[in-house]
Design a protein that fits this description.
Blueprint: E1 16-23, H1 34-60, E2 74-79, H2 85-95, E3 99-104, H3 108-111, H4 117-127, E4 132-138, H5 147-159, E5 163-167, H6 179-188, E6 192-196, E7 202-205, E8 220-222, H7 234-244, H8 254-258, H9 270-276, E9 283-284, H10 288-296, E10 306-307, H11 310-316, H12 319-378, H13 387-413, H14 416-430, H15 433-438, H16 454-467, E11 475-477, H17 479-543, H18 548-577, H19 579-601, H20 609-635
Parallel strand pairs: 1-2, 1-5, 2-3, 3-4, 4-11, 5-6
Antiparallel strand pairs: 6-7, 7-8, 9-10
């Protein structure tokens, strides 16, 4: 297992623009000028290229340095190299400087039976072209010419595309997996769709918020393309920019926020800049929360040094994924998953753990120090006649209150709470993406507009940019590949998550119960202390006692003030941590993951590709929903300066 070479969590993604093609075979292009179609496709691809270059240049000139890697953008066309539209656009892509990634509906030898003569020779020349980055062969059916295989190849092409070029007459599909079906699916996925008619007209599908059914002509905008550089179409460039650009900080001024700048200038994203400045942490001394757990859940001896187990995770994480990736697509597929997903996940997980300890330590300290400040103030009752001792206690009390405010200020200015949530969201989004990658697909949903909070926006951008780097693998995706990917899902994803959530639910329930009992005990002790004092008072008052009530008054007052403060501090810790909601969510996750585990185990002998893919999607959504609900629980648990 290769060790991570550097300790900066931010791995700058290489700007990647993914283009797919779908279109007619030669029988529907009779009478078309193929050279003109190729020329028009080349102009579209050059326009996309220029738009990507502009986004890249803008990202590089952002204050604080480039968000994208400084390497030139990757331009990728995914195609099945079928006769007609696929090869027309493939030739145009090679002329425009794009790389090709080939997705075949059948194993190569079977697919070659589709072609004869010069067409077969052209296919063989293209599939081994020097700019072909990979060739994915689907082996999902035993039937030659099965339309479901062509549909599977089309959907895999869409999965690896941000922009679809459709050489299409606008008519309904003649069968399963036709161009019309792919255009409708691309529209559903909110992809950028450029249509080239058999007559050479170029049109752009309107943005999703405005677009009617793509089968209707009013859904399409005509595009005017220039014949010379720069090959810029404003409408198309704007759509590409919305896909790829780094999200800017939201202006404080609402008018500025909604105004459209004719020539956008690069604006820093402070959340992304914070991430770029981070470093990997092997351990932390922010240990108050862990010490509290060790006190109430004694298992190991307490330590002031909390190990993040980063080196252990680097050495052991995703071993099953590694074995499956090498078996499916060789070391090339594993290197792509390792560098694109695993390394980024390790870093995000490390930061999430680190800031979780910081934030939790902050609120445990704040409530504890606030309670201690009250207790110190009450100690003056025992030395009421000594002004020196009282002054010292007051000074110590002020010092404790100052420490509470200092911890609050440092944690708030350092955004420990927000960073914890952001980095956990990032880690939990990257981890399940490996399942789609093992199936040769892309886990990336191609929505053009990133919405949500500031944290959600930069995390979504970074995940999208990272996942775009994953190309279709050079592999034969057959039943064996499906079995291996299914095993990874069962063992390294579902089983580990079930084990984690079961243990988490159990420990949270026990911790919450013991904290509750401790707070309750503090209140009972307050009552007992008060009753004892009342009994002593009655003895002195009515039975001529020795004045025990007067002697015990400082102690009774101290306990009457200190013990409720201890209970209040524990209540504050429980309210901020919200152990109950977290426990219930873990229990729900165990139930849902167990259901998916049962369904995946049923796909044991000969897994169905569509069913396994659907279950993988459900698993990803379940994990995403868990992160979303987890964020909802904790996003409102911000740090407060004491009670």
């Amino acid at each position: 297992m290769p060790r991570i070479a550097h300790r900066r969590p931010y791995i700058a993604p290489r700007l990647t623009l993914r283009v797919g093609v779908s279109g007619h075979r030669p029988n529907k292009l009779v009478g078309s000028d193929w050279e003109e179609l190729r020329r028009r496709a080349r102009l579209v691809l050059l326009c996309l290229h220029d738009a990507a270059l502009r986004v890249h240049a803008e990202g590089q000139s952002m204050p604080g340095g480039g968000a994208y890697d400084s390497t030139a953008p990757t331009l990728r066309l995914t195609t099945a190299l079928a006769e007609g539209a696929d090869r027309i656009v493939a030739r145009a892509a090679l002329a425009a400087g794009y790389g090709l990634h080939v997705v075949l509906p059948f194993p190569k030898a079977t697919y070659e039976r589709d072609f004869v003569g010069e067409s077969l020779e052209e296919f063989r020349r293209l599939v081994v072209h020097s700019r072909v980055g990979s060739c994915t062969e689907l082996d999902v059916t035993d039937k030659a010419q099965d339309p479901l295989a062509y549909r599977a190849a089309g959907l895999l092409t869409l999965a690896h595309s941000d922009v679809l070029i459709a050489l299409w007459d606008g008519q309904p599909a003649a069968g399963v997996g036709g161009t019309a079906e792919m255009v409708i699916e691309a529209h559903r996925r909110q992809m950028v769709v450029v249509r080239i008619t058999p007559g050479g007209e170029v049109r752009l599908l309107k943005a999703t918020a405005q677009a009617p059914d793509p089968m209707r002509e009013e859904a399409w905008l005509p595009l005017e393309l220039t014949e010379t550089a720069p090959y810029v179409s404003t409408e198309l460039a704007d759509r590409v920019r919305a896909l790829l650009c780094v999200p800017e900080d939201e202006p404080a001024d609402s008018e500025a926020r909604h105004s459209r700048r004719p020539d956008p200038q690069p604006v820093a994203n402070k959340w992304l800049s914070d991430f770029r400045a981070e470093a990997v942490h092997s351990h932390t001394y922010f240990c108050a929360y862990e010490l509290m757990r060790k006190i109430f859940l004694p298992a190991r001896r307490p330590s002031f040094r909390v190990d993040h187990r980063f080196a252990h995770n680097v050495a052991t994480a995703w071993k099953d994924t590694r074995d499956a990736a090498i078996a499916i697509g060789g070391h090339g597929l594993w290197r792509a998953i390792d560098g694109g997903l695993r390394e980024r996940w390790l870093r995000a997980d490390n930061l999430a753990i680190h800031y979780a300890h910081r934030f939790r330590t902050a609120y445990v300290l704040n409530f504890s120090l606030a309670a201690l400040a009250v207790i110190v103030g009450l100690l003056a009752l025992f030395s009421w006649e000594s002004t020196e001792i009282k002054a010292g206690l007051v000074g110590f009390e002020l010092l404790l209150i100052g420490a509470v405010l200092w911890v609050f200020r440092v944690a708030r200015n350092g955004r420990w709470h927000e960073r914890w949530l952001d980095y956990r969201r990032l880690a939990e989004t990257l981890r399940p993406a490996r399942l789609s990658a093992l199936l040769g697909s892309s886990p990336l949903a191609t929505a053009a507009v990133v919405v949500g909070t500031e944290g959600e926006r930069w995390v979504a951008w970074y995940v999208r940019a990272a996942l775009r780097e994953l190309a279709p693998p050079t592999a034969v995706l057959n039943n064996d590949a499906m079995v291996r990917a299914r095993q990874v899902a069962l063992q390294e994803e579902i089983a580990e998550q079930i084990e984690y959530h079961r243990g988490n639910a159990k420990s949270l329930a026990l911790l919450d119960h013991r904290l509750e009992r401790t707070a309750e005990m503090a209140l009972w002790l307050t009552i007992i202390g008060g009753l004892v004092y009342l009994a002593l008072w009655c003895w002195d008052e009515f039975a001529g006692g020795p004045g025990a009530a007067k002697m015990g008054k400082p102690t009774a007052t101290f306990l009457g003030g200190a013990l409720p403060m201890v209970g209040a501090a524990i209540f504050g810790i429980r309210a901020t941590a919200d152990f109950r909601s977290a426990r219930l969510q873990s229990e729900r996750m165990v139930t849902e993951l167990s259901r998916l585990e049962t369904l995946l185990k049923a796909q044991e002998a000969k897994p169905d590709r569509d069913e396994v893919g659907r279950l993988f999607d459900q698993l990803s959504r379940t994990l995403s929903d868990d992160v979303r609900l987890w964020n909802m629980v904790y996003s409102g648990r911000e740090l407060v300066p004491g009670f």
